[in-house]
Write a structure and sequence with these properties.
Helices cover 36% and strands 30% of the residues. It is α+β, with helices and mostly antiparallel strands and 102 residues long.
Length: 102
Amino acid sequence: MVSLVIFYVLVTTMLSLPRMQQFEVWQTTIRSVDHVNKLVRSRKVAFSSFDDKRYLLCSIHSVPYGSFVIEMSLRDGCCYFCYQEMMASFRQDGPRLFANVP
């Protein structure tokens, strides 16, 4: 139960972080130095709004690094998912040159 409460606090803290900020915590570990056990206290980044594991295709979509979608988006010059959505709506509704004109 205690671990669920801690998890909830950490997740709500992470979701409330403004852009490009991080949440740091103190971590205590047991380490052996020259066959002598010691407690070592260090400061670590727990949550950060910086995501270095994903490639941003546009302001909406991102994919993991190494995905085939990155090459397709670079080749086509636009976001793969936005292009797919645009083509799906084009096939469904037909071309709309003047969408707001009655």
